[in-house]
Amino acid sequence: MRSNRITAKFEKLARTGKKGFIAYITAGDPDLEVTRRLVIEFDRIGVDVVELGVPFSDPLADGIVNQRAAERALKSGTTLQRVLDTVKQIRQDSQVPIILFTYFNPVHHFGLEQFVADALESGVDGALVLDLPPEESKDYKKLMDMKGLCTVYLLAPTSTDDRIDLISRFSTGFVYYVSREGVTGVQEKMVGGVAAVVEKIRSRSGKPVAVGFGIATPSMAAEVASYADAVVVGSAIVQRIEEKGTAPDVIESVSGFVAELVKAVKR
Amino acid sequence: MLPDSGGHFGPYGGKYVPETLMSPLRELEEAYLKYKEDPDFQRELDYYLSEYAGRPTPLFYAERMTQRLGGAKVYLKREDLCHTGAHKINNTIGQALLAKRMGKSRIIAETGAGQHGVATATVAALFGLECEIYMGEEDMRRQALNVFRMRLLGSKVTPVSAGSMTLKDAISEAMRDWVTNVRTTHYILGSVLGAHPYPMMVRDFQKIIGAEARQQILEKEGKLPALLIACVGGGSNAIGLFYEFLKDKEVAMIGVEAGGLGIESGKHAARFAAGELGVLQGCMSFVLQTDDGQIGLTHSVSAGLDYASVGPEHSHLRDMKRVEYTNVTDEEALEGFQLLSNIEGIIPALESAHAVAHAVKIAPKMKQDENIIVNLSGRGDKDVQVASEILAKKR
C-alpha cells in the first residue's frame, strides 16, 4: 500500500515544526478546468492540503457562499465522476494531498465500494463526508481503511467528550474542528475559547487538529495557526472565485489571496 | 420495537447530520423519552389537545359519497376540524411543550403548504415562544393566505430563495438556523422525516389520529375497517392514522403519493414509484434523485406533498408489505377536491384530496359491508385560490 499523502504531509509538518494550510474550493466552480489549474497553482505556492468540495443540490451544512458555488458547479456539469477524473488529471502535475469534502448522497448513489476504489485510483487521499457521522459510517470506514484512504470527521463546539473520543478514533490523517456553531462562511472574528478546545482534542486524540469554518483573513489565519496544527479557509477563497468568475486572471487573483494566507500561517 | 436505538427502521432512518447536531439530537431524544413517560407532561399534552386543538376529531360517515361510489362505506377522519385546520397541530403542541421543558426560548420550523408553519406559529403564540418559519418563495406565492396567518400570529416568516424554493429548501434553511442557534432554539420538524428522533417522535405525537379512529369505528361498526387511506408527503398524517392499526392484520393500508402530471412525465413526487435509496436531510429513505445523486426536482399541485423523500418508517412498511403505496395525479386530486366539496360540503386540502381521489377509485371495487377510513388531514380553504386558477384554465 502506498503511503498516504495526507499522513505524510502532517508528519513532515510536525518534523519541521510548521503549521499546515488547507484550502477549500468547490470543484467545478466556475468549471473543472479552473479547478484543475487552481489546485496545481495552490500546490506551487505552498498550500499543504486541498479540500475539493463535491457540489450537492441540498448543501444543508453550507452557508450562502458555498451554496452558490455548488449551484455554479452543478450548472457547469460537475458530477462526482468528473471530479474524480479531474483529480486524475491533476496528478499528472501535482502530488498535493487532496481530500474530497462531500455530502453522503452522491457517494451513496455512486456506490460506496466503487467510490472508494475510484477515489484511490484517481489519486484522492481522503474524504470528509459532512453528513455521515461515525454512527452511520461502518461500511464506509471499513472500505476507506482497507484502501488506506484517510477518513476525516468534524468535531464541533457541541461535541461532548465521549464524542471527541469516538471521532478521534474514527479520524485518520487529522481531526477537523469546526470553530463555531453554524454553517460554513466567513465571519469577522474568531469566537473565544477555541485554543483551549483544540488543546483538549489534541491531547485526547493524539492527532493533528485542523480548525476551520469562518476563517476569512490572513490575520485570523495567523491567530488560529498559533494554536492549531492546520488552518482551513474555504468561503473566503470561494468568494474570490465568485467575484472573478471566468475572468482570465481568476487563477492569478485567487492564488494571490491564498499566498497571503499561506504566508500568515507559515510565518 | 422500531426504530432501533440509532433511529433505524430496517435500513432506513438513522442520523445523517453534521456533527454540530449530533449532541443536540441526543439531548432531544433523551428529553423526549423522559417526558413521554412523565404523567405531568402527558396530562398537559392531553389538556391542550382536547381544550385547545379540539380533539377528539369526529369520524364522519360520508353517506352521499358512499352511495355515489356504490361500494365500501367511506368514513372520513376529520383532522381538518382540528384547530388551525390540519393534523399538524398534534405534533406542534407536543414539541412546543417539550421545547419549554428543555428550556428553549425560541422555536423554528419549515413549512411547505403552510399548515405546519401555521400550527407552529400558533403554539408559539400560545406558549409565548419566539418563532421563525422558513418557507420557499414559490410556496409563499402559492400559499399567500397562510403567510399572512403566520405573521398575524406573531411569527417571522423568512423566504427561502435557494434551490427549487419549496419544502426541501425550507428544511435545509431551518437546519442551518438550528446548527447556528442550537443552544437556544428547538427545531419543530413537521413530519416523520429528518434525523432520529424526529421520525419516531412526530409519529408518536400523531398516532392519536389512529387511536381515536380505531375506537370510533369499533363503536360505529362493531368491527375494524377493511382499509385505511392517507396521503403521503413526508407521511405524518399517514403514519398517524396507520400506526395503531399495524397490529390488526386484517386492516389493509394504502399511502397515496403525489403523481403530479403523471409518473412518465417526470413531474411528480412519487418516491416509491421512481425513487431510489438515498439520504436527504438527515435520514436514509427512498429519494427522487438524478443519475449523479443530486436531489431530483419534484412537482405536485399540493405544496405539502411536494418533497423528494419520504418518512423512513414508510419505506420500511413498504418493504414489509404492510402498507401499499400508490399515487394519484394532480388532475385526479382536483376531481376529489371538487367531489367532496360538492356532495359532502367538505372542502379538503389538496393534500388530503389525493387520499379522497384514491378512495374514489377503490371503494367501488369493495364490498358494501366493508369500511374505509380516509384521513382527511386538512381543510382546503388555503387551496381555493390555486384550485380556482387551475379550474378556470380548464374551462
TrEMBL record, chain A:
Entry EC no(s): 4.2.1.20
Annotated catalysed reactions: (1S,2R)-1-C-(indol-3-yl)glycerol 3-phosphate + L-serine = D-glyceraldehyde 3-phosphate + L-tryptophan + H2O
Active site: 51, 62
Family label: Belongs to the TrpA family.
Key word Amino-acid biosynthesis present: yes
Keyword set includes Amino-acid biosynthesis: yes
Keywords annotated in UniProt: Amino-acid biosynthesis, Aromatic amino acid biosynthesis, Lyase, Tryptophan biosynthesis
Pathway note: Amino-acid biosynthesis; L-tryptophan biosynthesis; L-tryptophan from chorismate: step 5/5
One of the record's GO molecular function terms: tryptophan synthase activity
Function statement: The alpha subunit is responsible for the aldol cleavage of indoleglycerol phosphate to indole and glyceraldehyde 3-phosphate.
Enzyme class label: lyase
One cellular-component annotation, GO: cytosol
Name of the protein in question: Tryptophan synthase alpha chain
InterPro entries to which the protein is assigned, alphabetical: Aldolase_TIM, RibuloseP-bd_barrel, Trp_synthase_alpha_AS, Trp_synthase_suA
Originating gene: trpA
NCBIfam families: trpA (TIGR00262)
Pfam family name, one: Trp_syntA
Self-association and partners: Tetramer of two alpha and two beta chains.
Top-level lineage group: Bacteria
From TrEMBL, chain B:
Metabolic or biological pathway, per its Swiss-Prot or TrEMBL entry: Amino-acid biosynthesis; L-tryptophan biosynthesis; L-tryptophan from chorismate: step 5/5
Catalytic reactions of this protein: (1S,2R)-1-C-(indol-3-yl)glycerol 3-phosphate + L-serine = D-glyceraldehyde 3-phosphate + L-tryptophan + H2O
Transmembrane segments: none
Keywords: Amino-acid biosynthesis, Aromatic amino acid biosynthesis, Lyase, Pyridoxal phosphate, Tryptophan biosynthesis
Sequence positions bearing N6-(pyridoxal phosphate)lysine: 88
EC annotation from Swiss-Prot or TrEMBL: 4.2.1.20
GO molecular function: tryptophan synthase activity
Pfam families per the UniProt record, alphabetical: PALP (PF00291)
Sequence ranges assigned to domain Tryptophan synthase beta chain-like PALP in this UniProt record: 53-378
Cofactor(s) the protein needs: pyridoxal 5'-phosphate
Signal peptide boundaries: none
Domain of life of the source: Bacteria
A GO cellular component entry from the record: cytoplasm
HAMAP family, alphabetized: Trp_synth_beta
Entry's family note: Belongs to the TrpB family.
Quaternary assembly: Tetramer of two alpha and two beta chains.
Function: The beta subunit is responsible for the synthesis of L-tryptophan from indole and L-serine.
PANTHER family xrefs: TRYPTOPHAN SYNTHASE, TRYPTOPHAN SYNTHASE-RELATED
Protein name in the entry: Tryptophan synthase beta chain
Taxonomic lineage: Bacteria, Pseudomonadati, Candidatus Hydrogenedentota, Candidatus Abyssobacteria
